[in-house]
């Protein structure tokens, strides 16, 4: 059944009273925040505004899920109803799908990689419905692939790496894809689910490495190298946990947790992403929207503080993906906001207690 998140009509101005605001590090004292149209107002004048009593609540920036796979407008509705106001699509198909989703009003705002780059012998080349244009057979095709994705509107380039000999783009092709993306002013996100693939992504200098190996934990030297190179990680612990359980190797999830702890200790930026998607062929089905709250809890269990986990889904993805108009609660920024009961810095599960959600100032109905 198609699920929609109804938009709640209301006046152009809304004043949130007595709210504590997550400022990226901690919580402020109770204050007034005014939504004026689609942005946070620099003024706190409440005259003519709808008043919302926020006593006992926390105001958060809208959450950013840094790894999803989109399927339709119902995907955006599900994300919005759980407080995901921005979603970063990490490859979808058919290629025509992202364009209309960019134009859906009043729901989750998206960015997309479009078609991913895959090797001709790897498992992703056999995913049902995968575009034949995704297969990059060598460095000569790498530049053409990147140019085509940029022309199609890709906001960044997604590359699927496999361990050497497992059918992904070889080292030279991967390096060329990363270099071509930089030539076009695009960042690269490299899928790496095994240690061998992870080391290739490190060597190639990808801007982001998404997923986390289950075969062994990353060691301190590898984590330090990633930090020194300025690379960021989107570990998708929700997918790692589910995949390990589905494959009957649940203890292997501890390797993922140890890797995240090592990356955090080394100072690698960690971004919250869930790998939400419902297409067949995935090792585990991750639900859109609700999973971001699971991801935050798993990051805290892996060693991040609640404040660091909140940063991983707000200010950090906004900063690293160049989304300068969001990620914080500040005058002039998009009014992508969540009002939750309780204090998520004391208990990260408070992010699930959604009282109000706004996408660019338009209020959504929270999921039950």
Structure write-up:
The structure is a single chain. The longest helix is centred in the last third of the chain and has 14 residues. 29% of the residues lie in helices and 20% in strands. Strands 1, 2, 3, 4, 5, 6, 14, 15 and 16 form a nine-stranded mixed β-sheet that branches. A four-stranded parallel β-sheet has the order 10-11-12-13. Strands 7-8-9 form a three-stranded parallel β-sheet. Helix 3 packs parallel to helix 4, helix 4 crosses helix 5 and helix 6 packs across helix 8. The two termini are 16 Å apart. It is an alpha/beta fold. The model has no long low-confidence stretch (mean pLDDT 94). It is built from eleven helices and 16 strands.
From the structure above, extract its key features.
368 residues; alpha/beta; 9-stranded mixed β-sheet; 4-stranded parallel β-sheet; 11 helices; globular
Uncertain parts: none
Instruction: Please provide the ordered H/E string of secondary-structure elements.
Output: EEEEEEEHEHEHEHEHEHEHHHHHEEE
Number of contiguous helices: 11
In helices, the fraction of residues equals 25-40%
* Mean pLDDT across residues: 94
Tell me the span between the first and last alpha carbons: 16 Å
Shape: globular
Number of strands: 16
Oligomeric state: single chain
Rg measurement, Å = 20 Å
Tell me what portion of residues adopts beta-strand conformation: 15-25%
Structural class: alpha/beta
Give the biggest sheet.
9 strands, mixed
């Amino acid at each position: 059944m198609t699920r929609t998140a109804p938009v709640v009509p209301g006046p152009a101005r809304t004043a949130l009273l007595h709210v504590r605001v997550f400022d990226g590090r901690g919580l402020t004292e109770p204050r007034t925040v005014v939504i004026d149209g689609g942005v946070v107002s620099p003024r706190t004048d409440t005259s003519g505004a709808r008043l919302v009593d926020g006593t006992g609540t926390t105001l958060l920036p809208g959450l950013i899920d840094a790894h999803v796979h989109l399927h339709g407008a119902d995907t955006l509705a599900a994300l919005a109803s759980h407080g995901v106001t921005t979603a970063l699509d990490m490859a979808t198909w058919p290629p025509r799908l992202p364009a209309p989703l960019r134009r859906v009003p009043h729901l989750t705002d998206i960015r997309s990689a479009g078609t991913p780059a895959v090797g001709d012998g790897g498992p992703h080349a056999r995913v049902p419905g995968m575009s034949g244009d995704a297969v990059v057979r060598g460095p000569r095709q790498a530049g053409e692939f990147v140019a085509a994705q940029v022309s199609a509107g890709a906001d960044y380039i997604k590359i699927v790496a496999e361990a050497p000999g497992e059918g992904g783009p070889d080292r030279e092709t991967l390096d060329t894809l990363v270099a071509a993306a930089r030539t076009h002013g695009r960042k690269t996100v490299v899928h790496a689910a095994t240690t061998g693939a992870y080391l290739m992504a490190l060597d190639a200098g990808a801007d982001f490495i998404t997923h986390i190996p289950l075969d062994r934990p990353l060691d301190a030297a590898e984590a330090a190298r990633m930090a020194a190179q300025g690379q960021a990680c989107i570990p998708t612990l929700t997918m790692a946990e589910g995949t390990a359980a589905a494959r009957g190797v649940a203890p292997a999830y501890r390797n993922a947790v140890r890797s995240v702890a090592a990356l955090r200790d080394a100072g690698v930026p960690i971004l919250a992403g869930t790998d939400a998607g419902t297409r067949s062929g995935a090792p585990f089905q991750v639900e859109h929207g609700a999973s971001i709250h699971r991801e935050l809890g798993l990051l805290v269990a892996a060693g991040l503080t609640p404040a660091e986990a909140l940063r991983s889904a707000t200010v950090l993805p906004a900063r690293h993906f160049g989304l300068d108009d969001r990620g914080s609660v500040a005058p002039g920024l998009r009014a992508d906001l969540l009002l939750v009961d309780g204090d998520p810095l004391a208990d990260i599960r408070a992010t699930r207690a959604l009282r109000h959600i706004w996408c660019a100032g338009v209020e959504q109905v929270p999921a039950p």
